[in-house]
Design a protein that fits this description.
single chain, Rossmann fold, D-isomer_DH_NAD-bd, D-isomer_2_OHA_DH_cat_dom, NAD binding, Glyoxylate reductase/hydroxypyruvate reductase, oxidoreductase
């Protein structure tokens, strides 16, 4: 019965940061929902009954001021694999579990990486704009792109998403290099015909396309800066589908303006969206999408289902399938 379902806090249904109606329906199968706005309007009424905080697009933010309003909270369940927006030790210190949704985002994110790579290499966006332009009377030579098939791909971060990118790259007969904190097994390397680069510098020097697929941590913040960009080929393209903070954007602007690298294709920036006068938005050799790597209906539905599964388990005192125990 409806009154027997536990209560969960969400951002909103619809709106800029809210759930699509069909995604909210998935949550309603497991929870009675309270929107963030409703909580703030009457925290004394809603706060004590909320047992789960369900974060979608990082909202509602699990900040101390909000958590103090939720004395019965048992779990913060976040959509996606990244947890850089969560203070996991603080939340766990309150006796609240933390969960994310790894695995379900891998294919969509890997598809996005390859889409950005191909679109940048073959100037697909520029071609689209020229094809639609009413002034177009001929096809300009400026649409000449670079070859993807047979080129060398360097993957920084061979986790689940990096592995999926490598799988897709095999179809383009790409030579695959990867750099990771720990080397993958021989079996994994053989499955995708990938060669390990113990030093990041080696990967950067040899790659025609560099795809960044690491988690954002203190170690990876600013991982790609002036020095790293200077090691890349002047014909190389940087593709970032991880987090904007992994790349020093000021250094990237200079590298693109000076011809240190050929191009960049980014699904992530910092902040998101960029200020409208940011120089990255004005460069002709940059392709930017608004962090839509996981934005497919199938992936979004699976993410919400996984969030609900994690949160329901925590509320019932059962093991949480995707509990995050450390940052």
């Amino acid at each position: 019965m409806e009154e027997e379902k536990p209560w969960a806090l969400i951002s909103e249904v619809g709106g800029e940061f809210g759930y699509l109606e069909e995604l909210a329906d998935i949550l309603r199968q497991h929870f009675q929902l309270v929107c963030h706005r409703e909580l703030l309007q009457n925290p004394a009424l809603h706060g004590p009954k909320i047992q789960a905080l369900l974060m979608w697009k990082y909202c509602p933010a699990a900040e101390p001021a909000l958590l103090r309003l939720l004395p019965s909270l048992k779990v913060v369940a976040s959509a996606g694999v990244g947890i850089d927006h969560l203070d996991v030790p603080f939340i766990r210190g309150l006796g609240v579990k933390v969960a994310n949704t790894p695995g379900v985002v891998n294919n969509a994110t890997a598809d996005m990486a390859m889409g950005l790579l191909l679109a940048s290499a073959r100037k697909i966006l520029e071609g689209h704009q020229i094809a639609l332009d009413p002034r177009t009377t001929h096809i300009p030579q400026s649409l000449m792109g670079v070859e993807v098939t047979g080129s060398t791909l360097g993957i920084i971060g061979m986790g689940e998403i990096g592995y999926k990118i490598a799988q897709r790259s095999k179809g383009f007969e790409m030579k695959i290099l990867y750099h990771n904190r720990t080397r993958r097994s021989v079996e994994v390397e053989q499955e995708v015909e990938a060669s390990y680069c113990e030093r990041l510098d080696e990967l950067l020097r040899r790659s025609d396309f560099v795809v960044v697929a690491v988690k954002l941590t203190s170690d990876t913040t600013g991982l790609i800066g002036h020095r790293e960009l200077s090691l890349m080929k002047p014909t190389a393209t940087l593709v970032n589908i991880s987090r904007g903070q992994v790349v020093d954007q000021d250094a990237l602007v200079k590298a693109l303006q000076s011809g240190t690298i050929r191009a960049a294709a980014l699904d992530v920036t910092h902040p998101e969206p960029l200020p409208r006068d940011h120089p990255l938005l004005c460069l002709p050799n940059v392709l930017i999408t608004p962090h839509i790597g996981i934005s497919t209906y199938n992936t979004a539905s699976r993410m919400v289902e996984k969030m609900a599964e994690n949160a329901a388990a925590a509320v019932k005192g059962l093991p949480v399938p995707n509990e995050v125990k450390s940052q």
